Every structure is written in structure tokens, then in C-alpha cells.
Amino acid sequence: MPAAERVLVLWIPDWPIHAHLRDRAAQARSAAAQGLPAAEPGAATDMADAAPEVSPSSPTGAAPQWPALALVANHRVVACSPAARAEGVRAGLREREAQARCPSLEVHAHRPEADAREFAPVLTAIEQLVPGVEPRRPGLSAMRVRGPARYYGGEEPAATALLQLAAELGFDDARVGIADGIFAAEQAARSAAEAPGLSPAGPGIMIVPPGQAPAFLSALPVSRAAPRDFAEVLHGLGIHTLGAFAALPEEAVRQRFGANGIAVHRRATAAGPGHGAELRPRTPAREFTVELAFEPPIATAEQLAFACAALAEQFVSGFTAERLVCTALRVELTDDIGVHHEREWAHPRHFTATDVLGRIRWQASGLSHDAERGGAGITLVRLTPTHTDRAAAHEPGLWNTEPDERVHHQLSRAQSRLGHTAVGTMQLGGGRLLRDRQRRVPWGTRHADATGHASAAGPWPGALTGPAPSLVFTTPLPAELRDRAGTLVRVDAEDLLTTDPAQLTVAHTVLPTPVQGWSPPWPLREHWWEGAPPRFRLQVELSNGDAWLLYTEAGGWFAEGRYD
Q1: Does 296 sit behind a cis peptide bond, omega within 30 degrees of 0 on the bond before it?
Q2: 356 in helix, strand or coil?
Q3: Are 212 and 269 in contact (CB under 8 A)?
Q4: Least confident window among 34-38, 116-120, 242-246, 307-311
Q5: Which residue intervals of 35-110 are DSSP H helices?
Q6: What is the bridge-based pairing of β-strands 556-563 and 471-482?
Q7: Reading across the β-sheet that carries 199-202, which strands appear in turn?
Q8: pLDDT tens profile 62-115
Q9: Of 2, 228, 388, 485, whose CB neighbour count within 10 A is largest?
Q10: CA 456 to chain centre
Q11: Could you tell me if 318 and 290 are in contact, meaning their C-beta atoms sit under 8 angstroms apart?
């Protein structure tokens, strides 16, 4: 059997908690930059003011000072902070049981996408220090130790350099394990310093000497390498440690347990690369983020756009080289007094260098210029892509439905002179009333860009499903609907009209032709929990062919639109 290669594993304990707090801090900064209020403290979607403070002088391996909090999925704890564990909370515990053990426990939904997103910049930083990194899962990465050991003069100095990098990134509780094989190195990182077979080389550094990985693993419980159901089967057979399982012949394990048993057996024996346990470093993702610093600061939006012309060309050319296009980007502006201004922009097609400059100019022109605030201007511009796509997917087709390039050029030029919101198009949004569905979107902005608007996908109970009126009033017109005797028509408790309509009055003008047909009224019940009165919609047709869309609220009628 070929010997397993020496592997270094960097493990950041409680990574889901790290990722959750950092994601909340990013949301809080974004909300503060946009002037939005933060969520209520303690809610499942609240935002922290910042990630946990980490002192550069604290010893490596010290646990962060977090409150008692837990992340749950399917009503079970996925991860918890050290303070919660001190109260008896454990991963896998039901949510109610965890709250019973720790009444002060903060419970939040676990989001795996946040774990991966927050770990991406950490991987990038590690790859700048040590190339050839394999991300095992968020919070855990592995690399061959031979190259770093030769560069830094030994395995312990290489581990120390990685822990120093982790401390600079804010992870003072990071740990390093070095052993023969990936599995043994991970177990070393997770083991206490007094575990048999380990040679602690410093705070947070656990090294298993070469050739000693099987002896180190032999005392560990079999559940470290086997899934829960398989570990229960082995316990039933009297096999409780990895050493006892490794003592079995591999062929016997294959015949009895199949592929799953072979995988666990090779972990227990620290199998070498000839048995599929080799390291597989990832190909580092290209970094498309660009930034430019200014000294002295730039005060006006036009000067800033002119100074960023080369930056925008560099940003777009990076995608062209990879046969990609950028369809959404984040522009970050930092002024000379440290205030951070951030906004995400999207494009209906893809960004060109001119489009990028336009977004920088619009964002800079929208900043507050308060004389009492102080500051001389912008000192740093950073462009980060938030969504990319294949360039081939954005090539014009034979029957292209996008606006003509000349139209786009002229409207974009007018927009650059008048401002981002001066040129726009009308689009349909979500809502029940017709006036709520109309929204004006700035030219060059996708439908989903504007915040604070509901999606048109719905569902919207009570919304008009048939043809919409050709004329929609921005402000509904007061109306009256009466029967032949002049009595006002109302909606009764059974959601039916109290009498047959005969005459319609709109904006205090009696329409000359009588009502000849009408639809059954249908309800629009919104915010009933706040005591809002229900609305009822009604379509009426006059004898001359005209039709009106009405609704009643609190006993009064209003004309919402007219069919021509």
C-alpha cells in the first residue's frame, strides 16, 4: 500500500456561526448605506452591527466572545456558539429542547449559501499564501504540506503562518492539523492537545508524526469515520474504535459492507493516494474585482467618472478575456472620512465600460453634500461583479427583441446628462389595484432592480385576471352607483349587491347612458389583521358599450379604470 502524503488541514470551528454573523454585519452595513432601518433585535432576520470583535493580541485558539445563539434547519440545531454549548445545546438537538436548555438562546435560520459565500474570500486569501488548496467544506480546507514546509522551513512554521493569516482575517480560534492523509489531518485538527499520538507544536497546531497516523486513529470512535447508521451497525458487531475496524481484512470488509465499508476502512487505515484518498486542489477562481484609490480626494461626480475611465475598461476587459459578461455589479465608494457608500446595479443586457462609468457617475451624484458633514470627496472606488453570464448567451439573435442600439445610445446619452431616474419606461409590478401595478423603471435597469416593489408573479388574491382597462386613473375618481329608484347600491354581508345597478356617476358627472350589465362583486381583503376595511371590485357595462372598473370601500364607490 503506498504511503499517504503529508496533508495540512486548516479548520475554523463553528464556521456557520462565523458566516452568519459576518453576513448579518454585511446586511447591516448595506442597510445603513441605503438609509434603511435595521430589523428588530432578536428576530430571525435581524442584523448585527458588526461581526464579533477579535483582538490581534489574543492567543491563537481562543474562542470568540459570542452570545448564546444557534442556527436551525428543519427545527433541529445545525450549529451553535460556545456560550450555547456551555448551556447544554448541541448540534442535532430539536429547537424546542435547545430553547428549554438555554432560555436566552438566539435562534436563527441556517443558510448554507451564506456559509459558502463567506468562505470564498477566506479561500482566496489562503491561496495567496499557499497555492493548491482543496476546500473540503465551508470552514475546512486542506493542502499538501510539502511545499509550504520547504518554503517556511518546516511543518510547524508553515502551520504558524497559516494561523497568523487566519488571525488577520478575524479567526483567532482557527486550528491546524498535520498528518498522513486528509482524514487523519482533519481529526488531528479537531483533537485536544493531550490526545494520544499527537505532538502539539504550539497553540492550535496539532501534528501527527510521519507513519503514526494509524496509531493515532486507532483510539478514535468509529463514528468519526462512519455515518450514524453504519456506526450503529458496527457497534452492534462489537466494533467501537477505528483501530478495531482497521484490523479487519479489506476483502472481508468489501464482501460484508460493500463500497461504504471500504471507504470507512481506508479512512481508519490512513490509506494512501493509490486508494482514492489523494488531495484535489481547486482551480482558483479569477478575481474580477477592481479598485482605484485617489489622493487627493475627488469631489465631483464628473471628475470621478473621468478618473475611473481606465478602471472601467479594465473591469470589462477581464470578462471579455474569460468569454463572460457582467449583468450586475456593486459599486462601492469610500470618502476621505471613512463613510462607505455601496449600491448594486443591474443591466438589462450586459455592462460596457460606458455603462460602468455611468453607474459610477450616478451613484456619486446622489451622495449627500452636507457642508457640516465635512470631507473633501471620494478616495476609493471598488467595482465587484455580483452576477455574470456566458457571453454567447447575450449575442443578438436573428429575430432580436432587444431595443435598437441607436435607441439605447440616445436614451443612455440623455440619461447621462439628466440623471439616472430622468429617463425611464413603464413596467408591470405586483399588486391588487391597477395603480399599484404601474411602476416606472429607469432606462437600462432590469425589472427586479427596484427595491420596495412586490413581484408581479403573485399570487395576488382578488387581482384583475382578465383584460385590463385601457385607461387607468392615477387617483381613483369618486363615483356613485344607484338603482332605478335612486338608492345607492352597496355590498351586503354575503358579498352580493343590495340592488340592481341602473345609473353610474363618475367625478360628480352623471353618465347619460344607463347600466345594462355588471359582474358579481369580488372581494379585495388586505391587511385585515390591522382592521383595514374590505374592498369589493365590480365591472359595469353601459348601454352605449362603455365599461368601467369600480371598487367600493367604506360605503363609497370609486372608478379605477375605463374600458374603451
Answers
A1: yes
A2: helix
A3: no
A4: 34-38
A5: 82-86, 95-101
A6: antiparallel
A7: 133-137, 140-144, 6-11, 175-180, 205-207, 199-202
A8: 556 788 999 999 999 999 999 999 999 999 999 999 999 999 999 999 999 999
A9: 388
A10: 22
A11: yes
How many helices (H) and strands (E) would you count in the chain? 16, 23
Query: Any idea which residue has 484490523 for its cell?
Result: 247
With cell 486569501, the residue in question is 125
pLDDT at residue number 398: 62
Cell of residue 420, nine digits: 439616472
Residue 131 gets which letter from DSSP?
A: S
Q: What are phi and psi of 190, to 5 degrees?
A: -90, -10
Residue 458: pLDDT band by 50, 70, 90 thresholds? low
Q: Which residues pair with 324 in a beta bridge?
A: 390
Q: What is the dihedral of CA 18, 21, 22, 26, to 10 degrees?
A: 170
Q: Among 477, 480, 521, which residue's Cα sits nearest to residue 497?
A: 521
Q: With contact defined as beta carbons under 8 Å apart, do 343 and 330 qualify?
A: yes
Residue 185 · residue 177 · CB < 8 Å: yes
pTM passes above 0.70 = no
Question: What are the residues facing 463 on neighbouring strands?
Answer: none
Q: How many CA atoms lie within 13 A of 358 on its CB side?
A: 24
**Longest CA–CA separation in the chain, Å:** 102
Cα radius of gyration (the chain): 32
> How many residues make up the chain in this entry?
564
